[in-house]
Amino acid sequence: MRNPRPQGYFITFEGIDTCGKSTQIKLLYNYLRKNNIETICIRDPGTTPISESIRTILLDDNNSTMSSWTELLLYEAARAQMVHEVIRPALAAGTIVLCDRFYDSTTAYQGYGRGLDLKLVKQANAIGSVHLDPDVTFFIDLDPHVAADRKQKLGDRADRLEAEGLAFQEKVRHGFCEIQTNDPDRVHRINGHQSIEEIQQDIRDIVRKCKIVD
Ligand code: ADP
After folding, report:
1. Measured from the CB, is residue 149 less than 6 Å from ligand 1?
2. What does the pLDDT read at residue 6?
3. How many angstroms separate the CA atoms of 206 and 25, rounded?
4. What number does the ligand 1 atom closest to the CA of 194 have?
5. Domains of the chain with CATH codes
6. pTM exceeds 0.90, yes or no
């Protein structure tokens, strides 16, 4: 375990949009609950009222003049509130926290995608997470072309970051791959091109190895 704690376990899910994060979070949540393990699902940015308000600003495609540094700091502000108000208390109470995105997304999107200085992004991440690291991270790796097809099929309107196009998504995917290479003990790369059931199986295998569930 990366952050040995008497209680709680912090698990994050990462990857480009429509890679399957929320699908897998729901399935893992049901599995853990079936095993009588207290679990909550949250999302970053968001979860608390303050963080959800910041999320609305971040994803609003009318905010086209937002600088990349403003974007970075808003993500960190939303995260700091969520860590303070929800994650730390949940972990202290022994709860498993399943989080849709965390600071690796900031590294991938604002660092590798936007091209901000990675050293400064790392420092900002330390502030936004208030030095809380995930115990385990699942990076669901999907080709951006496949993700774009899924998005089209869903008929969803793209938000400000999703509208950045394939070249941007490629940079972000590369960023996630680099993050995994640099921190292989924490970050597990899962092949997102498999079926929903196969991906869930891979995730549960790792969760069992971590002894969260027998
Ligand atoms: P995310 O939360 O990463 O944006 P979702 O879990 O919402 O992604 O999935 C996006 C879409 O892709 C949904 O329509 C979902 O049913 C579909 N999907 C998820 N996982 C798979 C998979 N392994 N194979 C095919 N379609 C998938």
Report:
1. no
2. 55
3. 14
4. 23
5. 10-209 (3.40.50.300)
6. yes
